[in-house]
Amino acid sequence: MNKQRVELIKGDITSVEVDAIVNAANNSLLGGGGVDGAIHIAAGPELLTECESLNGCETGQSKITKGYRLKAKHVIHTVGPVWCGGYRDEHTLLASCYQTCLALAKINRIKTIAFPGISTGIYGFPKDMAALIAVTETKRFLSKNSLPEKVIFVAYGDENFETYRKLLDQ
Ligand code: AR6
């Protein structure tokens, strides 16, 4: 895989200039705390109105909306698994989040996409395992597809950044 197609930055995903940012949403798609709350605040109330028309989303699946007042043109909402000790198919479901987001990006001809660490906040998925799944699934997808051209992992804080950096340096 071409290394330049994966980038790592530190900071707030709501201010990243890309074609699409990914939201770590819940099954209702009607907003919440964490990155979901920050995205809805930055995008403005039109985002919630569009989300209300989507009829929610299954865990491990993803849906796309416009980005409204965000710099990103689109938001891809994905629903990560709640961590339950690893006994409820959480790994497969988290991998599916990355797969379905990237597939939606491809279908919508999105060239650049930014991901937060899905499920690693309120949903409690161990951050190192989650980062490994994120990097593995992304590399796998990019090796078979020319779109998206670039995937940016947005680490929130120094520890998260180091976790991804080590994986991407390998
Ligand atoms: N930019 C980038 N990353 C962020 C930001 C930000 N502005 N804010 C938080 N993070 P979380 P989840 C990181 O809790 O675990 C919501 O209520 C954060 O440090 O946002 O998937 C939804 O509605 C963490 O690493 O999402 C759901 O109910 C990562 O983003 C539930 O939380 C994800 O943390 C989803 O929980």
List the keywords.
170 residues, alpha/beta, Leucine Aminopeptidase, subunit E, domain 1, binds ligand AR6
What does this structure look like?
It is a single chain. By secondary structure, the chain is an alpha/beta fold. The chain has a single domain (3-169), classed as 3-Layer(aba) Sandwich (Leucine Aminopeptidase, subunit E, domain 1), CATH 3.40.220.10. Helices cover 39% and strands 19% of the residues. The protein is built from five helices and six strands, in the order ββααββαβαβα. It has helices at 34-43, 45-52, 90-107, 127-144, 158-169; strands at residues 6-10, 20-25, 62-66, 74-79, 112-115, 150-155. Strands 1-6-5-2-4-3 form a six-stranded mixed β-sheet, sandwiched between helices. Helix 3 (90-107) packs parallel to helix 4 (127-144) and helix 4 (127-144) packs across helix 5 (158-169). The longest helix is centred in the middle third of the chain and has 18 residues, at 90-107. The mean pLDDT is 97. Bound molecules: ligand AR6. Ligand AR6 binds at residues 12-14, 24-26, 32-36, 38, 80, 116-123, 154, 156, 160.
